[in-house]
Amino acid sequence: MEKIVKIALIVFLFLNVLAIDIFLYLFWNKENFMSMVQGDSCPAKCEEMIKNELTNITPAMVTLVPTKVISPSSTAKIVQRNSIQKTRSTQYIPIPGTGSTLDNVWTDLPGTEFYISTDDYSGLVGSYFEANMKLLNGNGLAYLRLFDVTAGIEVWGSEVSTNSQSFTSVSSGKLTLRSGNHLYRVQAKSLTADTTVFNSGRIKVILEN
User: Fold this and answer.
1) Report field, pTM of the whole predicted structure over 0.70
2) How far, in Å, CA of 137 to CA of 162, rounded?
3) Which listed residue, of 68, 71, 150, 200, carries a Cα 20 to 30 Å from 142's Cα?
Protein backbone atom coordinates (compact mmCIF):
# COMPACT_ATOMS: atom_id res chain seq x y z
CA MET A 1 0.00 0.00 0.00
CA GLU A 2 2.81 2.42 0.86
CA LYS A 3 4.56 1.66 -2.48
CA ILE A 4 1.39 2.45 -4.47
CA VAL A 5 0.99 5.78 -2.64
CA LYS A 6 4.59 6.73 -3.48
CA ILE A 7 4.10 5.90 -7.20
CA ALA A 8 0.87 7.93 -7.32
CA LEU A 9 2.64 10.87 -5.67
CA ILE A 10 5.47 10.77 -8.23
CA VAL A 11 3.02 10.66 -11.16
CA PHE A 12 1.04 13.55 -9.68
CA LEU A 13 4.16 15.69 -9.25
CA PHE A 14 5.34 14.83 -12.76
CA LEU A 15 2.03 15.96 -14.29
CA ASN A 16 2.09 19.16 -12.25
CA VAL A 17 5.60 20.03 -13.43
CA LEU A 18 4.59 19.24 -17.01
CA ALA A 19 1.55 21.52 -16.81
CA ILE A 20 3.64 24.36 -15.36
CA ASP A 21 6.26 24.02 -18.11
CA ILE A 22 3.60 24.09 -20.84
CA PHE A 23 1.95 27.13 -19.28
CA LEU A 24 5.23 29.02 -19.05
CA TYR A 25 6.15 28.10 -22.60
CA LEU A 26 2.81 29.28 -23.95
CA PHE A 27 2.99 32.46 -21.88
CA TRP A 28 6.40 33.45 -23.31
CA ASN A 29 5.41 32.37 -26.79
CA LYS A 30 2.02 34.01 -26.69
CA GLU A 31 2.23 35.43 -30.20
CA ASN A 32 3.14 32.06 -31.73
CA PHE A 33 0.42 30.35 -29.76
CA MET A 34 -2.21 32.90 -30.80
CA SER A 35 -1.20 32.57 -34.41
CA MET A 36 -1.61 28.80 -34.17
CA VAL A 37 -5.08 28.93 -32.66
CA GLN A 38 -6.25 31.38 -35.36
CA GLY A 39 -5.37 29.04 -38.21
CA ASP A 40 -6.92 25.80 -39.37
CA SER A 41 -3.71 23.92 -38.62
CA CYS A 42 -3.84 24.63 -34.83
CA PRO A 43 -4.52 21.10 -33.60
CA ALA A 44 -1.57 19.58 -35.42
CA LYS A 45 0.85 22.34 -34.40
CA CYS A 46 -0.34 22.21 -30.79
CA GLU A 47 0.21 18.48 -30.72
CA GLU A 48 3.69 18.87 -32.18
CA MET A 49 4.54 21.54 -29.60
CA ILE A 50 3.43 19.35 -26.70
CA LYS A 51 5.47 16.42 -28.02
CA ASN A 52 8.56 18.62 -28.27
CA GLU A 53 8.06 19.84 -24.70
CA LEU A 54 7.73 16.28 -23.42
CA THR A 55 10.91 15.30 -25.25
CA ASN A 56 12.84 18.14 -23.68
CA ILE A 57 11.86 17.22 -20.12
CA THR A 58 14.67 15.44 -18.29
CA PRO A 59 14.53 13.57 -14.96
CA ALA A 60 16.52 16.39 -13.37
CA MET A 61 13.58 18.74 -14.03
CA VAL A 62 11.27 16.68 -11.84
CA THR A 63 11.66 17.53 -8.17
CA LEU A 64 10.44 14.84 -5.84
CA VAL A 65 9.19 15.66 -2.38
CA PRO A 66 10.83 13.29 0.10
CA THR A 67 8.49 11.13 2.06
CA LYS A 68 8.65 11.77 5.77
CA VAL A 69 8.86 8.62 7.82
CA ILE A 70 6.86 8.94 10.99
CA SER A 71 8.15 6.86 13.82
CA PRO A 72 5.66 5.11 16.10
CA SER A 73 6.87 7.19 19.04
CA SER A 74 5.65 10.38 17.35
CA THR A 75 2.12 9.11 16.69
CA ALA A 76 1.35 7.31 19.91
CA LYS A 77 2.17 7.75 23.53
CA ILE A 78 3.30 4.69 25.38
CA VAL A 79 1.89 4.86 28.89
CA GLN A 80 3.84 2.79 31.34
CA ARG A 81 1.92 1.92 34.43
CA ASN A 82 3.84 1.23 37.56
CA SER A 83 2.91 -2.12 39.01
CA ILE A 84 1.20 -1.85 42.37
CA GLN A 85 2.99 -3.84 45.02
CA LYS A 86 0.62 -5.70 47.33
CA THR A 87 1.52 -6.90 50.79
CA ARG A 88 0.44 -10.25 52.17
CA SER A 89 -0.44 -10.62 55.81
CA THR A 90 -1.66 -13.49 57.99
CA GLN A 91 -4.25 -13.41 60.73
CA TYR A 92 -5.52 -16.16 63.03
CA ILE A 93 -9.02 -16.76 64.37
CA PRO A 94 -8.91 -18.97 67.48
CA ILE A 95 -11.38 -21.84 67.85
CA PRO A 96 -12.58 -22.29 71.44
CA GLY A 97 -13.08 -25.53 73.33
CA THR A 98 -11.96 -29.13 73.05
CA GLY A 99 -13.77 -32.43 72.51
CA SER A 100 -13.64 -36.10 71.57
CA THR A 101 -15.82 -38.84 70.13
CA LEU A 102 -15.91 -42.58 69.48
CA ASP A 103 -18.65 -42.28 66.85
CA ASN A 104 -17.95 -43.33 63.28
CA VAL A 105 -20.24 -40.60 61.89
CA TRP A 106 -19.69 -36.85 61.99
CA THR A 107 -20.46 -35.64 65.51
CA ASP A 108 -20.69 -32.07 66.84
CA LEU A 109 -18.14 -31.12 69.50
CA PRO A 110 -20.01 -28.81 71.89
CA GLY A 111 -18.25 -25.60 72.94
CA THR A 112 -16.28 -25.25 69.68
CA GLU A 113 -18.59 -22.68 68.01
CA PHE A 114 -17.21 -19.44 66.56
CA TYR A 115 -18.22 -16.78 64.05
CA ILE A 116 -16.50 -15.63 60.86
CA SER A 117 -17.70 -12.77 58.68
CA THR A 118 -15.93 -12.60 55.35
CA ASP A 119 -16.88 -8.91 55.15
CA ASP A 120 -14.38 -8.24 57.96
CA TYR A 121 -11.44 -9.43 55.85
CA SER A 122 -10.68 -7.16 52.91
CA GLY A 123 -8.36 -8.73 50.32
CA LEU A 124 -9.04 -12.30 51.48
CA VAL A 125 -6.78 -14.65 49.50
CA GLY A 126 -7.37 -17.90 51.35
CA SER A 127 -8.23 -19.48 54.69
CA TYR A 128 -7.22 -22.80 56.30
CA PHE A 129 -8.28 -24.94 59.26
CA GLU A 130 -5.40 -25.82 61.60
CA ALA A 131 -5.99 -28.31 64.42
CA ASN A 132 -4.12 -30.09 67.17
CA MET A 133 -5.51 -33.64 67.40
CA LYS A 134 -4.76 -37.32 68.00
CA LEU A 135 -6.29 -40.78 67.80
CA LEU A 136 -6.40 -42.36 71.24
CA ASN A 137 -4.49 -45.71 71.16
CA GLY A 138 -3.55 -44.95 67.53
CA ASN A 139 -5.47 -47.72 65.78
CA GLY A 140 -6.98 -46.42 62.52
CA LEU A 141 -7.72 -42.80 61.61
CA ALA A 142 -9.17 -39.82 63.45
CA TYR A 143 -11.07 -37.14 61.49
CA LEU A 144 -12.03 -33.50 62.08
CA ARG A 145 -13.85 -30.94 59.94
CA LEU A 146 -15.69 -27.63 60.17
CA PHE A 147 -19.45 -27.37 59.90
CA ASP A 148 -21.26 -24.20 58.77
CA VAL A 149 -24.16 -24.04 61.26
CA THR A 150 -25.70 -21.00 59.55
CA ALA A 151 -25.79 -22.64 56.10
CA GLY A 152 -26.41 -26.17 57.45
CA ILE A 153 -23.57 -27.71 55.44
CA GLU A 154 -19.95 -28.75 55.93
CA VAL A 155 -17.16 -26.36 55.01
CA TRP A 156 -15.64 -27.70 51.83
CA GLY A 157 -11.91 -28.35 52.08
CA SER A 158 -11.83 -28.39 55.89
CA GLU A 159 -11.42 -32.13 56.52
CA VAL A 160 -8.21 -33.25 58.30
CA SER A 161 -7.09 -36.60 59.75
CA THR A 162 -4.30 -38.33 61.66
CA ASN A 163 -3.33 -41.75 62.97
CA SER A 164 -0.90 -40.36 65.53
CA GLN A 165 -1.23 -41.48 69.18
CA SER A 166 0.19 -38.15 70.34
CA PHE A 167 -1.13 -34.70 69.63
CA THR A 168 -0.04 -33.46 66.23
CA SER A 169 -0.73 -30.31 64.22
CA VAL A 170 -2.56 -30.77 60.92
CA SER A 171 -3.69 -28.25 58.32
CA SER A 172 -6.54 -28.46 55.83
CA GLY A 173 -6.73 -27.42 52.22
CA LYS A 174 -8.15 -24.06 51.19
CA LEU A 175 -11.53 -23.45 52.82
CA THR A 176 -14.68 -22.39 51.02
CA LEU A 177 -16.13 -19.75 53.32
CA ARG A 178 -19.54 -18.47 52.31
CA SER A 179 -20.09 -14.73 52.27
CA GLY A 180 -21.62 -13.00 55.25
CA ASN A 181 -21.46 -13.64 59.00
CA HIS A 182 -21.69 -17.40 59.68
CA LEU A 183 -21.55 -19.59 62.79
CA TYR A 184 -19.13 -22.51 62.57
CA ARG A 185 -18.51 -25.61 64.70
CA VAL A 186 -15.94 -28.42 64.83
CA GLN A 187 -17.12 -31.96 64.06
CA ALA A 188 -15.22 -35.22 64.63
CA LYS A 189 -15.47 -38.92 63.83
CA SER A 190 -13.43 -42.11 64.17
CA LEU A 191 -13.43 -45.04 61.77
CA THR A 192 -12.32 -47.43 64.50
CA ALA A 193 -13.24 -48.20 68.12
CA ASP A 194 -10.65 -45.68 69.24
CA THR A 195 -11.32 -42.05 70.18
CA THR A 196 -10.74 -38.96 68.10
CA VAL A 197 -9.51 -36.14 70.32
CA PHE A 198 -9.58 -32.44 69.39
CA ASN A 199 -7.28 -30.39 71.62
CA SER A 200 -7.24 -26.92 69.96
CA GLY A 201 -7.64 -25.22 66.63
CA ARG A 202 -7.61 -21.96 64.68
CA ILE A 203 -8.44 -20.51 61.27
CA LYS A 204 -5.50 -19.16 59.32
CA VAL A 205 -6.53 -16.20 57.16
CA ILE A 206 -4.28 -14.82 54.42
CA LEU A 207 -4.91 -11.27 53.20
CA GLU A 208 -3.40 -9.33 50.30
CA ASN A 209 -3.77 -5.53 50.21
Assistant:
1) no
2) 12
3) 150
